[in-house]
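Troubleshooting: if your tokenizer reports a length mismatch, compare your output against this known-good record of 450 residues.
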Amino acid sequence: MKRSRLARAAVAATAVAGLVLAGCGDTDAPGGEQADISVLAMDASQMQTLKKLTKRHFTAQTGITVDYTLLPENEARERMNREFATQAGTYDVASVSAYEAPIYADNGWLAPLDSYVKADEDFDQDDVFPNLVSSLTGEDGKLYAEPFYGEGSFLMYRKDLFRKDGLTMPPNPTWQQVADLAARIDGTDGASGICLRGLPGWGQNLAPLNTVVNTFGGTWYDTDWNARLTSPEFRKAVGFYVDLLRSHGQPGADRMGVLEILDRFVQGKCAMMYDATSLASSIEADGSAVKGKVGYVPAPHDRTEKAGWLWTWAWGIQQAAGNKDAAWEFISWASSKEYQELVGNEVGWTAAPAGNRRSLYSNPEYQQAADAWYRQEYTAATDSADPRNPGVGPRPYTGIGFLGIPEFAVLGTAVSEQIAAAIAGQQSVDTALEKSQDLAQAAAAKYRGE
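Known-good structure output:
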């Protein structure tokens, strides 16, 4: 792997000076030496692969040792929020999402990466999808994180079941078309008409539901930060989602998040599923009961032409990090074209972190391995709804599947619980939204100057 002049100097300085960070914990290096950098990330398969490959490749090439802390997503977020808010400096690098990155940047918790990107010519920033770069850019116009992988959303459907019932999936379906198809195919070979996230959590049921709200013309707030969760458009969107799940969705939907519905889909228990593009590799993996039987089309829409979400897990450097140059070296490697090729060659091309670089989609080996879905994955990653204008009419916040304000983590979770109760039949959609309206109005009081 080629290295920039700045990067080579950083590596040399690290090796000569023998720099260590206090409190980083033990590394996997022999003798229990301290790590040059410490990385905090959620415990996902992509991260596990990264950890396994680090010593034999990154450390061998640069001399920089890495101490990983991998935690379940909620725990990782809790620790990251605490760590970055206090600027404790325990972790040099963390996997921040499209939600956290702009908020952390505006608070001064992340180090800008522009100078590193400019000096590291081999990184090829122009190869990174522009919409992901935009989502990781602060209000000051500076870049604060680099995508490790990205994802959009699309509709997955069982081609074999559709043929059996004489159904045809439109190339760019509306939500009403999806609902009609779900009603007709529900029960075929014991499969639910559609599987959707119903589990509470702002990153669970609200992720897909917010795309429905956007395309139905709804918005959480008007431009004066007045809550709009009881507006006709918002009510129609939530009512549609809840009714679809209750009528033709999976049993126990209110207790099922992304992992649970993925499990049902790969077992052949769902005729359709609307969710993340990153799930396709699991659907087409060896051992999946539906491998080779699935079709992929864009996210369903209603009043807008585009409706899919945009998401990324990206690497950011804590402002208080004691070894920023080495931290950039890690990011430059982990988010590089070379790393994608390394995973493809050593682990398999469908395991390569996708959705972040153009070059992966022109790679014949990836095209062959991901032939069933890579075209729609590329479209979803590059031509999703605009995070700054994802719906109908103006709004004071950015984001597609989330609201880019600090209050949303708590607000979204509370609202998602009300939605889940409606999905479970414990209350009406109207009651859920009336309660949610009060929560949303209170959460935005400071933006209204109250």
